[in-house]
Amino acid sequence: MKLLIVGGVAGGASAAARARRLSEDAEIVLFERGPDVSFANCGLPYYVSGEIAERKKLLVTTPEMLRNRFKLDVRTRSSVETIDRAAKKVHVRDLATGREYEESYDTLILAPGAAPFRPPIPGIDLPGIFTLRNLQDIDLIKGQVDHGVKQAVLLGGGFINLELAENLVRRGVATTVVEKNGQILTPFDREMTTPIVEHLATKGVTLLLSQTAESIEKTADGLVVYLKSGERLPAQLVVVGVGVRPENKLAVGAGLAVGPRGGIQVNEYLQTSDPSIFAVGDAVEVTDFVILEQTQVPLAGPANRQGRIAADNVFDRKAKYRGTQGTAILGFFDRTVAMTGASEKSLSRAKRPYRKVYIHPMHHAGYYPGAEQMSLKVIFHPETGKLLGAQGVGGAGVDKRIDVLAVAIQAGMTVFDLEEMELAYAPQYGSAKDPINMAGFVASGLVRGDHPQTDVDSILATEPGQRPFLVDVRTAQEFSLGNIPGAVNIPVDELRSRLGELPRDRPIAAYCQVGQRGYIATRILLQAGFTVSNVGGGYKTYRLFFPKDAKQ
Amino acid sequence: MKLLIVGGVAGGASAAARARRLSEDAEIVLFERGPDVSFANCGLPYYVSGEIAERKKLLVTTPEMLRNRFKLDVRTRSSVETIDRAAKKVHVRDLATGREYEESYDTLILAPGAAPFRPPIPGIDLPGIFTLRNLQDIDLIKGQVDHGVKQAVLLGGGFINLELAENLVRRGVATTVVEKNGQILTPFDREMTTPIVEHLATKGVTLLLSQTAESIEKTADGLVVYLKSGERLPAQLVVVGVGVRPENKLAVGAGLAVGPRGGIQVNEYLQTSDPSIFAVGDAVEVTDFVILEQTQVPLAGPANRQGRIAADNVFDRKAKYRGTQGTAILGFFDRTVAMTGASEKSLSRAKRPYRKVYIHPMHHAGYYPGAEQMSLKVIFHPETGKLLGAQGVGGAGVDKRIDVLAVAIQAGMTVFDLEEMELAYAPQYGSAKDPINMAGFVASGLVRGDHPQTDVDSILATEPGQRPFLVDVRTAQEFSLGNIPGAVNIPVDELRSRLGELPRDRPIAAYCQVGQRGYIATRILLQAGFTVSNVGGGYKTYRLFFPKDAKQ
Description:
The structure is a homodimer of 552-residue chains.
Chain A: E1 2-6, H1 10-22, E2 27-31, H2 45-48, H3 63-70, E3 73-75, E4 78-84, E5 89-94, E6 100-104, E7 107-110, E8 114-116, E9 129-130, H4 135-146, E10 151-155, H5 159-170, E11 174-178, H6 194-202, E12 206-208, E13 213-219, E14 222-227, E15 232-235, E16 237-240, E17 244-246, H7 249-253, E18 277-279, E19 286-287, E20 294-295, H8 300-314, E21 328-332, E22 335-341, H9 344-349, E23 355-359, E24 375-380, E25 387-394, H10 398-410, H11 415-419, H12 435-448, E26 453-454, H13 456-460, E27 469-472, H14 476-480, E28 488-489, H15 492-495, E29 508-511, H16 516-527, E30 532-535, H17 538-545
Parallel strand pairs in A: 1-2, 1-7, 2-3, 7-18, 9-16, 10-11, 10-16, 11-12, 26-30, 27-28, 27-29, 29-30
Antiparallel strand pairs in A: 4-5, 5-6, 8-17, 13-14, 14-15, 19-20, 21-22, 22-25, 23-24, 24-25
Helix pairs in contact in A: 1-8
């Protein structure tokens, strides 16, 4: 068996190492266009601030190590230019020497990755404008910062640019993020990004939403980015992070099938339209595990697993890729936002039925010092309760809950299973009723019909005259500090004795701070014959949709 | 419906609140023998050091709150003495006034909890000797410490006493833990407690394993604990934490069925042998979710969920309790040890087949600062790969992995599912190949037969002459810093060229530091025709069984 692998980072390197473990005899050649193999893509932004101080830490492995340990023929700075599928040969160019040659294969694995997209605006190729994909890019960005950058403009409010923003702020650089959509981190539902937007402001990052760069010009002391709005942003560093495009040139040139977004099409065995050619990683189209449609999700974890699976299939160990859930996480200073599975947006786009709940629990027992509040959104099928997606934002413990929910989605579990989860509890780690259990209680009550809920976003999307009668069941003091416009205040503990103040001819929506007292109020009013629902997640959820500074 | 609930802490309070949400009309009386309802049992030790500074934080709720919000008839300091099942009445004594009275019921829920066991040794009832169950106990213990305690002896090396040890050390108290078994934290397998044993020593706690107290005597300045070994431990504070016994007196007196360990027997609806009487919490016998035998597991999480389920059943909403997994966690300073599901010990006792793997991964990407190493043990069915149990010990991130594995066990997942898990990865939170994926890779390789493994404990249990040929595939430097006795050193990267040094007539066991290079070595040697296995988890696992200071 002669196996050629194109691309030596996450998917390619995983495939190569797995292939060698499966076969000591196979001839395995790993081609990588850059000088490095298997570097830590996800760590690159942290090198700018020195948070990761040593550059060599970013090298997960070296060509030498792959040669010695895995007996791999590693060829860096080698570009595979074309594939001759009929002759089963590739045409290679050695970028160091210029030498061109052919290499035959029995099987080929493509792991070329995805390239940052540069929008075609005037000035986009000026010096001082970078994209961030590899070590060479971060060397250039860090070099620019070391050389003295006062102002930076980051085009795009995605994961990498927000990580970069943190590290630029740590270096004292005045940083502006320009995002063309109305929210940052577009895989998330907008309201779940609100705490990160607020934290960006706290840390001094300027965020311009719904704005785009029109052109970039060189000035005496750097660059200036002109926005469509007319605003002018001077900068000595511009980083373009507005998404990536699959590196499909080789595949397209060879006549392999690619999807509408450019991703190389593969079957569940990660085999392309040519059975001798597999493809993995950011360059391929994958099945969305929840929605079951084709999509593209550039993530390191899936790329690594795909590399392993492709190698298994090359050596006739039938292995299926189960699809991608899109589990993703961002740390921004001490804040975390994470998601798994489908979002409301993706379910709406796919026209799938769903319901959602919000809870705002402490990450561990409130009585133990250091408890941090998080917001957790769980999305599920309205009738079966099957879990479809989850998003969390807060500080400590968000990653844990999203991982737990990621496994639950993988297992096909329902909101009823969340009620029953037996998670580790001591006061430093969780609560006797963990946030996951709480989400299960709330969502199960909704599916069972015990706990009618109304979404705050749907209330606010209704004409004021058509809205339910809003009763705020918090204390008078809480009410006075901020409330949903139009609400009347009857504290839950007084509710039973003040039923006469509530309308019997109109739906009532009760809310509290996070949803728990609202639930109790709902149960009391339901049993007293009112038409009532709880506003899911209470005032805290309202504030995710309508932050304090925003217009209502 | 008139519902009486006996016991107002975790299970009882949960049942009462749930009952009220299900029925506004029911008459609900909650009897609690102590002065408090629903206090934070699991937080009590942290009050001694002031880590939890305010006593009122330990009160999760108050009788007043339960009265106002849930319209409950809460009767604290009220002891339910007997049950007249025929007449459906209980006999109650008001401990404050001495008044005795009867109260009728339609349904009764028993949630009396479990009481600390005091071994019947001479002197056990002397002043200065405490058990720890409730706020009154911790007031006494804290009072004693505030009054000046130089030395404390904790009888029993279980969860509560180790938490107490941390808080006594924080107060500057010289603390000795006396444990009759050969290990602390007996639900765990012994080797997984090794890092905690080492950390106890680091923090100055004296641990005496396999020792028991024979008697306790009063001295001029306090107490002295005499051990069976003859050792004499002076102390001004002794806390007895050698296990709990179900509070079954009321149930036994009423003729309800109890199990061999004294737990009240209930069916899956948490109904006792009398259909009008339910029982929940530490007083009941539960089904072990993995082993499917009856057991007793005093844990707050299950108690809370049982309370909720019992209330559901009282109001004819059929709800089943799925059994207890025994998910448990201990924090000791910055160390964490956690488990879920079956242990090797419990599987051996129940004569169930299993295999195990050990891995020692970093809790997040090694290239990002602050990565902490953990040890993770995963136990599974040898043929199907079905997950049976897991244990983890380390620092940050242990709780997350055990929670993920707890859900996987709940879902009936296998080690193959672990390979495919898509968990949240950014360098602060995990790795592209998460510890969970790694455990899946190792265990799946074992079940599939690709990755023959030998357990280090079984090698060491074999006569030296019968052991496999041990090859240490780490570097010469690693080898020189400590190795398994009898091993020869051939670094993995030299293995292919030094095959001649290995025996073909004898099984070989390869090991490295954590198992990964040992696995690569095993694959190389297997394919070269050797009979070889990898020593699971490598030298690091060996050190869990044989710590540096221990005899080999």
